[in-house]
Amino acid sequence: MTFPAPRPSDPLPGFRFAVTLGEAALPASALAPGGIIPLQIGFSEVSGLGATVEMHTYQEGGRNDTTLKFPTRVDFGNITFRRGVAFDPVVFAWFYAVRQGGFGARRSLMIAHLNEAGTPAMVWYVRRAVPASYTGPTWDASQNAVAVESLEIAHEGLELIPGVDFAIDIAASVLGG
Predict the structure, then answer these.
(1) Phi, psi of 93, deg, nearest 5
(2) Cβ neighbours, 10 Å, residue 124
(3) How many domains does the chain have?
(4) How far is the CA of 29 from the CAs of 64, 98, 152, 171, in angstroms?
(5) Residues 104-117 pLDDT 10s
(6) Confidence band (pLDDT; 50, 70, 90) for 17?
(7) Is 11 domain-assigned?
(8) 163, part of any domain
(9) Residue 18 burial (CB < 10 Å; 0-12/13-18/19+)?
(10) Residue 146 · residue 117 · CB < 8 Å
(11) Nearest residue to 124 via CA among 176, 50, 53
(12) Among 7, 13, 114, 123, which is 20 to 30 Å from 47 by CA?
C-alpha cells in the first residue's frame, strides 16, 4: 500500500512506535550514531505520557472577582508499557533490580513515534525512569490470547523532540556542542 506524502497537519498513525531503553539515566545511553539504538524491547502498547503543572491559588485582597493562579512545579504521571510475554526477561529483570535495592537502576528512555517510512517523526525523551510496578501475565485455558505483562515506570521528566534530527539535538545538548 502506498501512502500519500504527509502534510504538517496530517496526524501520525498510533500503531508505529519504537521504545529504546538506555543502560543509564543519561540521554546519550539511549542513542546510537545516526539515531536510536535498534529496538531492544518491543511493546504493543504505551500509555500515560503526560505532565501536570500544579497551580498555587492566591486570593488577593480587594479583588473579589477573581482568584490569581500561579504555576509551581510539574508532576509527571507514570507511563505504562505492555507487551506479550517473551523469552527475554529484560522487563522483569529491571523491576527486580529495583526491588532488590538497586535504586541506581534509573535509565533513560526514548519513545519514537514513527512515520509511514519508519523513521522517527517525534521522540519523547523520558528522564531518570525507574520501575514502579510490574504485572505478570494472566493465564486462562479457555482463551486463545497472548499472555501480556506490563511495566509501569515513574520518571522525573518528559521532553518532546520534534523532527527526524532528534539525535543530533540531544547529543549536542548532552555533549555541550
Answers:
(1) -60, -40
(2) 19
(3) 1
(4) 53, 19, 21, 10
(5) 678 888 888 887 77
(6) confident
(7) no
(8) yes
(9) buried
(10) no
(11) 50
(12) 7
In a domain, 6, yes or no: no
The kind and range of the H/E element at 96 are helix 90-99
Alpha-carbon gap, residue 152 to 172, rounded angstroms:
30
Return the ∠ at Cα 168 (arms to 167 and 172), rounded to 5°: 115
Domain residue limits at 97:
17-175
Q: What is the pLDDT of residues 50-104, one digit of tens each?
A: 999 999 999 988 888 889 999 999 999 999 998 888 777 778 888 888 888 876 6
Say what the pLDDT of residue 35 is. Answer: 47
- In eight-state DSSP terms, residue 100 is T
Separation CA 48–CA 177 (nearest Å): 32
Give the C-alpha separation, 83 to 4, whole Å.
31
Which candidate, 130, 118, 52, 120, places its Cα nearest to that of 94?
130
In a domain, 12, yes or no: no
pLDDT tens digits, 31-45: 444 444 444 567 888
The residue assigned the cell 504521571 is 77
Distance CA 106, CA 100 (A): 14
CATH code of the domain containing 89? 2.30.110
Q: Which of 128, 143, 140 is nearest to 30 (CA)?
A: 128
